[in-house]
Amino acid sequence: TYYNLNPETPDLDFHSLPLVARSSTTSAAAFHRTRITIAAFIRSLLSIFTFHFPATIFTIPTHLSITPSLGRRVTGTLFGNRHGHVTFAVQYDSRSVPVLIIEFAVSTSTLVKEMSSGLVRIALECEKKIQTPRGGRGRSAMRLFGEPAWTMYCNGRKCGYAVSRSCNESDWHVLSTVERVSVGAGVIPTLVDNDQKGGVSEGELLYMRARFERVVGSRDSEAFYMLNPDGNGGAELSIFLLRI
């Protein structure tokens, strides 16, 4: 029942009226139907968002890249003198400054021989140094790419110790020489000291360049899988960085 608040009605006591008008049974049923309609509409919207949008939009990624600007696909270059240690350089593209340079514990000729015989899996491991801040959880203070030394395993066999270093003039000379090469292998003529003749002579530096798929497992693990140019078959070379 709705009250008539017409001021022309003199016998109506305004102060005796309730603050909220009482609804009839019909109005209550209409209100209930309205609530059901709104709930059904909301459920339909939720179903649209659930099934018609990618799930990644509504989920938080569990694997965060330490260097987000590096990306998923990178350029990897292996180079070194035939009997010298091989160096692995990682770049965003073929012309950018390398973000990682590691000198392996094996020679270039040994790595070439391993790759010619089958799949090669290189694992680089280092010890995690934990720094516990006051009132916080322990965590490694150094980035994975900044670790200076690694224990190297090639196809399960311990080879020695690999070393990370900054890019020097010799490294940049090699990378700038092959910057126009996206995928391939070859020989670069170089000048090396010749102590017996008191001068210099030409030497050979082998290189292999390819695109690698970079997979970040956690703050303490990353992997680089060499991509075949034709897109067929698995990775012939895989390099794992593990901090344990």
Automatic annotation (TrEMBL):
InterPro entries: MIZ1-like_pln (IPR006460)
One Pfam short name: DUF617
Top-level taxon of the source organism: Eukaryota
UniProt-recorded name of the protein: Protein MIZU-KUSSEI 1
